[in-house]
Design a protein that fits this description.
Blueprint: H1 2-27, E1 36-43, E2 54-57, E3 60-70, E4 77-84, E5 93-99, E6 106-112, E7 130-134, H2 138-162, H3 165-229, H4 233-283, H5 287-294, H6 296-318
Parallel strand pairs: 1-7, 2-6, 5-7
Antiparallel strand pairs: 1-4, 2-3, 3-4, 5-6
Length: about 325
């Protein structure tokens, strides 16, 4: 009975050891029958990453983090990962460190750097070493949120100090002014729209008139072309040449006539000069006409003589026998 208990205790202990070993191997992602390889990456910081954290590709665990160390110059952190040998990494691989869950566990995910252009992956000089980037952990996000809240509080205090009753009234007046300006601009735009519509109508009318004028000009040029191309055009041109020659001769004759007219004008000027002299002599009382115009009594006498002569002529016509006697034998 005692020996049976000892054997049972031994089996339990052995089974516990096997389960512990298998669990450890499973937690370390041990590959039974599959090879592994080591991949290293350089990052500026690793956040809360620790040895044993999982390494994933497209959300699938492909290995574990086996070592984390700071570079001798202190400018970067090197992590060593053990990944399955049969896994093909992206053409431009990079390591992105981020929290795996809300409980503080982190992971290292192998990603394509071109898929995350917003992250500044480290560019290692060594060949075969991947560049990495670590997302901020929750503590940093909390600190950043606290800093943001403080800044918002300060901004709120400043806004409260600046936004007084007078400021609100000024803003209200500014809004009213903006509305007035907007209304005036709307009216101006409507007026200008009407003016542009009228202008467009006038331009359209002018374009139609220009088209009609161009058509009329085209018809005129066509008619002129027909006239110039007609058989009678040569005879018309010859007639025009004859007419021009006749006009030239007429111009010569007019020139001669103009010379004769010039002599006639000179003689007329001489005649008018004599008339002026005679008129001047009459006005001065010289000659018979001058005496008649200057002596009114002489005019009355001459008038009486003419009256008497008129009476005598009338009597002569009425009684010619008084004055003329004809005797034969």
């Amino acid at each position: 009975m005692t020996r049976r208990r000892e054997i049972l205790v031994g089996l339990v202990i052995t089974l516990g050891i096997v389960v512990a070993v298998l669990g450890t191997l499973w937690l370390q992602d041990a590959s039974f029958g599959r090879g592994t390889r080591q991949v290293q990456a350089l990052l500026l910081e690793v956040g809360q990453l620790m040895d044993g954290n999982s390494v994933k590709l497209r959300g699938v665990t492909i290995g574990r983090v086996i070592d984390i160390s700071v570079e001798p110059d202190g400018t970067a952190v090197r992590i060593t990962m053990s990944v399955r040998e049969d896994v093909v990494l992206p053409s431009d691989p990079g390591v992105l460190l981020a929290p795996e869950s809300m409980f503080g566990d982190w992971q290292a995910e192998v990603v394509s750097r071109s898929a995350y252009p917003q992250f500044e992956f480290l560019n290692p000089v060594e060949e075969g070493i991947l560049g990495g980037y670590a997302l901020p952990d929750f503590s940093r996000l909390t600190a950043a949120a606290d800093q943001i809240s403080q800044n918002l509080g300060i901004l709120s205090d400043r806004v409260e100090e600046a936004f007084t009753e007078e400021t609100a009234q000024n803003i209200s007046e500014a809004i009213n002014n903006i509305q007035d300006v907007s209304e005036r601009l709307r009216e101006l735009v409507e007026v200008q729209a009407g003016a542009f519509a009228n202008l467009a109508t006038e331009v359209e009318t002018a374009a139609v008139e220009l088209g009609e004028a161009a058509h009329a000009g085209h018809l005129a040029f066509s008619k002129a072309d027909e006239i110039l191309g007609a058989p009678t055009t040569d005879s018309i041109l010859l007639d025009a040449r004859v007419i021009a020659s006749n006009l030239k001769g007429l111009s010569s004759e007019l020139t001669t006539t103009t010379g004769d007219a010039r002599g006639l004008i000179n003689r007329a000027d001489s005649t008018f000069a004599r008339l002026d002299r005679i008129t001047a002599e009459i006005e001065s009382g010289q000659g018979v006409l001058g005496h008649l115009m200057s002596d009114s009594a002489l005019v009355y006498r001459a008038q009486d003589v003419l009256i008497q002569l008129s009476i005598l002529l009338e009597d002569f016509r009425a009684n010619p026998q008084r004055y003329v006697r004809i005797s034969i034998f």
